[in-house]
Each structure stands twice: as C-alpha cells, then as structure tokens.
Amino acid sequence: MNEANLPELAQRIRVAHVRDAVPNGDHAVYVGRAMPGREGSVFGNPLPVRGRTWTPAAQAWTAHLATHAELEVREAARAALLARGYAQGEAATLYRHVLRAQCREAHSPQRTALLRLARLVAAGETLTLQCWCAPQPCHAAVIRDAILGYARRLSA
C-alpha cells in the first residue's frame, strides 16, 4: 500500500461512546473495563481516573510507570500513586505506555487482539472502538493508533 492510501486505513476505525449507534457493517469492539452486565476487554485501561476504584492492576501499572525513562511519565505516575488516580486525559495518554509494555510479549492477549483487528482493517473492514469515556480523552484513541500501526505494516 502506498502512502496515498494510508488515510483510508485511518477512516476505517472510529472511536465512539459505548451508547452511540454503531454504523451498519462496522465491527463493534468494546475496549473498556468490566462493568455490571458487560465483560471487560483485554484493552481495558488499568489506569483509573481519580475517584474511581484503585485496583491491584492500577497499583502495579502505576509502579511500572513510576520507573519509566521519561521524567513526565514518572512524575504523573508518582502523583497518581498519591492521589489514587489520574486525570481523565492523563489516564488515556499514559495508557500508550501500558499497551506498549503489554505488546512486548509476542503472544500477549493485547498483541493478539491488536493483530486480529489490524488484519480486519487491512482487509477493508471497518471498526468502531467503544468505550465509556469517549468523546472525552480516551484510551481507545491509543488502541486505534496501535491497530493502524499494525494494519499499515500488513498492507505494505
């Protein structure tokens, strides 16, 4: 696939609130945490927004981020440890580092799911990534970027 066709891939992935209608033909992909009546996704962001439940996963990932090479990431993680949560946009932005770490393992559930979704997009399918926080800053945008990265490699 040449560079001129790359925007076409990006148009195949939408980020939407979980209650928004999914266009006919789109594959709906829930990417949020477990909620009453809804199973959690492998992509559920373990970094909670302030005021939400602080879990062992939140503690572990925040401790991981507190040792990150980038000072800004370390500082955000240390502040989150004290506050027991992140600001909305901060949780979404820092999820990029969590997802990268998860995908370093060749057969992780996250990497396997990203590759499956990237194959769909590369084959011309369209996806709607659903989360509770969209259209606010949302980790689904990070997932979208990761799917696009893999899809571009598959389409090259």
From TrEMBL:
InterPro entries: DUF4326
Pfam families assigned: DUF4326
Keywords from the named record: Plasmid
Stretches assigned to the DUF4326 domain: 25-143
Protein name: DUF4326 domain-containing protein
Organism: Deinococcus wulumuqiensis
